[in-house]
Structures are given as structure tokens and as C-alpha cells.
Amino acid sequence: MVRRPVAWVVAVVLFAEALGVVALNWFLGEVVHRQRMSLAGLDPNVMANSSKAGGLVFGLYFALCGLVALLVAVRGRRPAGLGRVLLISAAVVHGLLGAFAWGLVGWRAFLFMVLVLGLIVLLLMTYDREEGPAGEVPGGPRDAGGPGAENTPGPAGDARHGGETGHGSEAPGPLTPPAEARTP
User: Fold this and answer.
1) 97 C-beta neighbours (distance < 10 Å), count
2) 155-177 residues labelled b (16+ CB within 10 A) or e (exposed)
3) Residues in CB range of 23: below 8 A, 6 or more apart
4) What CA–CA distance (Å, rounded) separates 155 from 85?
5) What's the rounded mean pLDDT across residues 174-182?
6) How many of the other CB atoms lie within 10 Å of CB of 16?
7) Which pTM was predicted?
8) Which tens digits make up the pLDDT trace of 32-91?
9) Do residues 16 and 69 lie in contact, with contact meaning Cβ atoms separated by under 8 Å?
10) Are 98 and 114 in contact (CB under 8 A)?
């Protein structure tokens, strides 16, 4: 399938981007520091250190997102919890950076940001639905009270009784027609 190669590519791109962001901000901080530049009377040392610190923070953020993609590639499972939130936020950040890059840097930077955005979204979408051991998607006929599930309770209770489990707060599960109404 295409799942693992996409996860590997996303991991490599995010790690490279993390290094690039750190290197660029460190270089810009050194330029400001050595030239003793000031913007509207701000202290050049504060500006240089802020640039370096911002580069390190964003570099660590992209490296953490790359680590999540790497774990997805190695394990072969979809990202869950904080990892999924990190990848979604990285997609949003790349969308915003792409919008700013169009006006400030040019169309090539915009194209790169949109490409990374597309890769992250592809990673999230390919792992959206996992297949079971027999190629069945969870929530399919066996899990929804279809053929073969008459005597097994589903996740929302016993499918034969409309999902009622006695808790009262759960939504009813899928209804199965009576045995005499089913067609052979």
C-alpha cells in the first residue's frame, strides 16, 4: 500500500524542514548580532537571541511532528491522540506559511509549503480507516450486527435488542431485522 512510504516521506521532509528552520533562524540571528542592526531602537542582542530561540522552538516542533510521522511509518498504525493533533497542527501551519510565502518569498516557496501540506493530509487520510485481519473495515457488516453477528454483542450492546444495555445514556446500536424477515 501507499501508507508507509507516505509516512516515511513526511518524516524525512519534516526532519529536514526542522533542520532548515533552525539553521536559517540561527544564521539570521548571527547576521543581526554581527552587524549590530537595530529595528526601531530594539537591542540587537535581544533581536539576535530571539531569532535563535524562535528557530529552536519551531525546529523542535517540526522535529516532534517528524517523530510522530516516523512512528507511524515504523508501527504501521495511524497516529492517535497528541500525535494526530500535532500532525493536524503542522498541516495548518504549512497552510498559513504557504499563504505568507506566496506574498513574501514567491511561488516556489508556496509550492513547497503546499506540497508538504498535501503530504501531511495524505498521511492523515490514508490512515483514517484501518482494515481488520480479514480485510474488513471496522464498523462493517460483522461489527454492525450483520450476518455472523447475531449472537455476539456489538460495541453498543446486543444488536438483537436494538443496542440496549441497560445504561440508558448510550445511543441505540444498529437494529437487525427479525430472523423471519431476512432473506436467505
Assistant:
1) 20
2) ebbbbbeebeeeeeeeeebeebe
3) 55
4) 25
5) 60
6) 12
7) 0.65
8) 888 877 778 888 888 889 999 999 999 999 999 999 999 999 988 888 889 999 999 999
9) no
10) yes
